[in-house]
Amino acid sequence: MNYRKIAELIMILLIVLFLGLYISGMTGYYKYSETKKSILTEEAMERFEEDIKQGKKIDVSNYLEETKNYNNVFSSLGLKTSALIEKGFNKAMTSLFKQLSKVISNE
After folding, report:
1. Neighbour count for residue 80 (Cβ, 10 Å)
2. Distance in Å from the first CA to the final CA of the chain
């Protein structure tokens, strides 16, 4: 197993991921999606104010946007796997730093 090739592959992957995030940030995709949410919220506030002026019965569900549930077997499995990896990584890092602190404090 050649560790240099593995390191190069990881670096290339990180660079590609960084470039993808950078390009999406520079093109304004995130800003557009957040602006769209705020505009929908402003429209809901205007409808709410009009309904109050007209004396209509107020129901919160009329002003909230319905969110679609995209959960399925694969996304649930991905979330569980991610949580498992996170727990293992946290335990490994905690153990590593405890060992390092013991080594440093003994010197």
Report:
1. 10
2. 35
Instruction: Report CA 86 to chain centroid distance, whole Å.
Output: 15
d(CA 10, CA 63): 46
Query: Which structure tokens are listed for 97?
Result: 């730093």
Predicted confidence (pLDDT) per residue in 15-48, tens digit = 998 988 888 777 876 677 677 666 667 777 888 8
In degrees, rounded to 5, the angle at the alpha carbon of residue 77 between the alpha carbons of residues 73 and 81 is: 175
DSSP-derived secondary structure for 46-89 = HHHHHHHHHTPPP-GGGTSPPPP----HHHHHHHHHHHHHHHHH
pTM over 0.85: no
Distances, alpha carbon 35 to alpha carbons 14, 21, 59, 69, in Å: 29, 19, 25, 22
